[in-house]
Batch of 2 targets.
Target 1
Amino acid sequence: MIELKNVSKWYGKFQVLDNCSVKVEKSDVMVVCGPSGSGKSTLIKCINGLEPFQQGEIFVDGIKVNDKNTNLNHLRSKIGMVFQNFELYPHMNVLKNISLSQIKVLKRSEDEANEKSMQLLERVGLKEQYKKFPSQLSGGQQQRVAIARALAMDPIAMLFDEPTSALDPEMINEVLDVMIELAQDGMTMAVVTHEMGFAKKVADKILFMDEGRIEETADKMNFFDNPKSERTKLFLSKILTH
Amino acid sequence: MILENFDFDVILGSLPFLMKGLKVSFYLTFLALIGGIVFGTLLALMRVSKFKILSYISMTYVNFLRSMPLILVIFWFFFLVPLVIGRPIGGFYSAVIAFTMFEAAYYSEIIRAGLLSVSKNQIAAARATGLSYSQSMIHVILPQAFRNMVPILLTQAVILFQDTSLVYVVSLRDFMTTSVIVAQSQSRLVEMYIFAALVYFIICFAFSFMIKKLQNKREAQ
């Protein structure tokens, strides 16, 4: 479903991604972890072409992302994305936030879009909040709306860029619950996160990044119990001790 | 004492004439404001465009107009526009064009700052759902930018209102010009210039006060 082949990226002379290759099969969940500045977010943003890259290839559903002839807008409409700071549109209410792209991109009628939005709000447990503005919601609620906004496009895959790291601890689970449910429903997902509990529960593949390189790719059993690289061992020893 | 012979009747008597002038001032401000914001938005969008040539054209235009005295721009358009289009269009419309072109240069800088005040991640979020660049601008970025800019745009509108008095140099009958006409024809300079100052002061001060209130209300939110 998602395939990265030898992807490298530079900001000027600074290399942020170094020859990254990985494959995510349909309905699989890939968790990307690693220290900050290791290129996790950049890697995930390359998948829907939000970040350009200079070398390598990325395919999503057989379509080449870094091809001039690819209609990126169309491709992006099929890949949902959730951001660290939610990025809801502050000047629109919750319903409008979710309906906007359905109307403008998928050309759904307003009624059709709103109906879909309400279904998704119900799914993430926020049906009552549809008239509120983002600033009137808690962080956890905002992130659930953002997930609903991404799902409204009927995506074939979902990208999550540290979806819980801007949240107060007591709100993390309400977002993770929605994500776990999505994973169990068979959504193809690529998730940048430090939530190892989430990884243990639903990840099919865990990727550890450091300094722009993919240091280790493993299934969850091997990643936690039998990591190969020293760098991964060090990272795990630091985050799993408490 | 100058005020001993202060003649209110000259003001009252010429009120209809002066009100006509005030209407012209308002109308000119309004049209130049709308035109300036529309054209200024275009300039700002060109300036932030990834196409270097558009950015360069916009930058040159803005820097050039901002280096010109307004009064010169008014003269230009008054004399040039009829030459270019081959027929007179009247002082009013040439003034509207002059103010629109001039104000757009200032508005574009305000609007550009407004565009830059919206987080880049908002564009990323909009584009991630498949919205095109222009759709993202229209539905997500510009509305937020304008919301942030409203107080500054209105403050600039107050300055514009004061600046419209410069159309005196092309004899367009706005409030300033009509006041001068009355003052000179009736030899009542003191009354008329005090009255004109009061009118400008009340309008501008009241408007600025409203903007301040609006700003405080927003900051409280």
Note: Chain A touches chain B at residues 45, 48, 50, 73-74, 76-81, 83, 85, 87-91, 100-101, 104-106, 149-150, 153 (CB under 8 Å).
Target 2
Amino acid sequence: MSNQAAVIESTVRDPLILGKKDYHQITEDICRPVEGKANKYWWIAFIIAFTTMIWGILCLAYTIGNGIGSWGLNKTVGWAWDITNFVWWIGIGHAGTLISAILLLFRQRWRMSINRSAEAMTIFAVICAGLFPVFHTGRPWLDYWMLPLPNQFGSLWVNFNSPLLWDVFAISTYFSVSLVFWYLGLIPDLATIRDRCVTPTRKFIYGLLAFGWKGTARDWLRFEEVSLVLAGLSTPLVLSVHTIVSFDFATSIVPGWHTTIFPPYFVAGAIFSGFAMVLTLMIIARKVLSLEQYITIQHIELMNKIIILTGSIVGVAYLTEFFMAWYSGVQYESYAFMNRAFGPYWWAYWSMMTCNVITPQLFWVKKIRTSVLATFIISIFVNIGMWFERFVIIVTSIHRDYLPSSWTMYSPTFIEVGIFVGTIGLFFTCFLVFARVFPVIALNELKTILKKTGNQYKKKGTY
Amino acid sequence: MDTNYTLTKNNKTIPMIMMAIGVVAIVMGFMTDTTRAWAVLLHNNFYFTAIALAGTFFVAVQYVAQAGWAVGIKRVPEAMGGFLKYGAIGMILIFAFGHEHLYFWTHNEYYDPNNPAYDHILVGKHGFLNIPFFSVRMVLYFLIWIGFTMLLRKESLQEDVDGSLDHFRKSVKLGAIFLILFAVTSSTSAWDFLMSIDSHWFSTLFGWYTFIGLFVSGLATMCMFILYLKLKGYMEHVREDHLHDVGKFMFAFSVFWTYLWFSQFMLIWYANLPEEVVYFKVRWEHYRTLWIGNFMINFIAPFLVLMTRDAKRQIRILWVGGVIIFIGHWFDVFVMVMPGTVGKDWHLGFIEFGTMIGYLGLFIWSTLHELAKAPLVAKNHPMLEETLHHHI
């Protein structure tokens, strides 16, 4: 694991922990938001997020009462806003898993300051995502029919040939593993908080949450073994979840959906959007919780580099698809892509291209990728762009199908918009609560790299 | 530690013998079946060029990702890039003289409306698939690849001399630029050299699939060169910890290759569109053993052999894994090239293996000579200490 890595570090690497911290100071800094009282800004944010969430719940209730006829779907466009949001949220979750699993395997120490909150984000994002297919079925109380349960309903049985069923398995596995992995990492930190508690009630609650962690060598040994196993399980999950989401589209024969590049390109896009959301959240969190010395400019710069990488992969995939639509000589395929770029939904396509392909390229300039404000703005652009990507893929491919007499347009109703905005409220509500009750940085894990990357231990490099 | 590799007598003679075998095989090929000979040449030329390219790619990635552990082995992938010039000459000659046999889109009759063979799909692609544009692209690819290989190598060697940190900084920049260009050229070159053989067929994933395949075989080749150097008593600073990391890469990218293989195959099989599925149909009907074997040898074998930690830390097992991957992906390219060229009358005989041995001889000769030209350790690399104290 990471803490077995080399102690010697090149002087060209910048320190990851600033401010001459010692072990105690790290505990103090990271436990402060949990132990102190929430400030005014937290309450304002919480009230806004919570109200939005309530609004979303009301819209969902309306949907349950009236059926999905209250959405803007029609007989040509049977998938639109809801699936767009589903894919968007699922994608956002991927950064957390990438940071906790793949960056662990690549021994990237900078992941330590951001993994906890990115993993939390994964869990909240998957919850938001899951709501959409659950309610799109129209009768959410019958959703257990999606599971292959023995039943007395005659021929009622799930269709194992359907990628939608694979999704049920993929996402529930993903959610379970992410949740367990995240909680496992929390246990030592929860014990730290428990040991610092002053009131008996708090001590009791954190004591329960910490599962009786004692911090003995035996505890740590087991902890590290389980972490490694879970990292091994999570790594294929990073790829498999969005791959299977892409299968929802790519196994069909709809022009614009059926293309072989979808699986890896969806995964790259998911990581791209996930890192954008991590940046959006962390830039706010480091400021509000005074964690600038832990989530440094270097962290932001490194995440921006991942944004460039994945954004460029996505860009190459867009161009590949467009080229192949022409190269294939299939008229339906060519039409689908021309319709995307120059048809009635041209504005969605060009929003996607601008936000996803052009804006991230600004990060090639060091000044921009080390600027907090610029990063924040671009991360918002990427969040918007990735939403439009899914909208473009889903709606523009099906609103003009093989039969011109069925061609139509789609626009969402206020109920659909309300549900989406509500999930954003739910996401932020969860995150704000998380930031108050759990340590947002894996403090015990961070301590293992202090002597390698703390700035008082490092000679400043000349790089 | 910073000694050069000294070529042994065998290093000079054995590659020469291998190349001689290759020449005999190629001559025999042209005497028996011209199309087969050109196809075999394209297959091997592409494969070994790809391996050399993987070397440069590896070096560029290590700089851009600021990886410290690989500093101790980077002279090996650097040296592998030296083969690219031979690959370039080979590819240009193969296209110039063999295109009639390899790429049926170069035949004029498909573009003549009065000819019964007139093919409107090829006419549609003519803006991309035509001899002048193909030639320009081909030359451009090699100029970019060879150019960046030489520039990265130059910075690395100059760093040995003056120890300035500027070379490291410049290499990071060069690496980043190379990666952008490579992201485009790796896909387009795969479309050109391989996908256009089956001129009607298309797959958006093809470029990435080919690229990952070449990267895995490049890693396996790099691993085997490191093992050979260790066998000869060089590279003492490369311990089992470094080999473990190389092994992890081989394992991980074998699995990733499988993922792409499956994605491409499954989606085409599931949708079952005639214009797409024809690619697998011909492979299923006439190349079944190789086609299934390809999957087994490139996924199951490396997966089982390289899975455990101990396996990746043992020289013998790494040899086994390296050879399996090297041969496995050679067959992968074989199954990509042959159905569209020689079709169902394919062979796997002296001509095929002999040419492979010839190319391998040239590759070994080229790489060992490059290795002998410079010290085996980049002694002034700013992350050298990390690689020397690499423990996992």
Note: Chain B has a mean pLDDT of 93.
